[in-house]
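Researcher: Next sequence.
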Amino acid sequence: MMRLEDAVEDRTSILIGALAGAVIGGAVGYLLFTERGRRLREDLEPRIMDVIAELGRARAAADVARETLADVPASTPSPEPARGAAPASSPGWR
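Model: Next structure:
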């Protein structure tokens, strides 16, 4: 038997999904079927293309960084602590 809380949660999820679909559908309809929507699309297109190009450059930089890190040997020694620095395990020093 279904609990009342589960039924309410299911109905809430369905209602939220229906409302989200209506809002998205309205926005798409506005952008595709109105003159103002067409102008908005034309204004936004160069900005969207710039964002896509920037994402491509960021991905390429991440690939280079990943390849560079893959070339670093796993046995690279840790740097020595600076002279006069307290050991990490010393109480009272941070």
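Model: Residues 69 and 76 are 12 Å apart (CA to CA). The chain has a mean pLDDT of 85.
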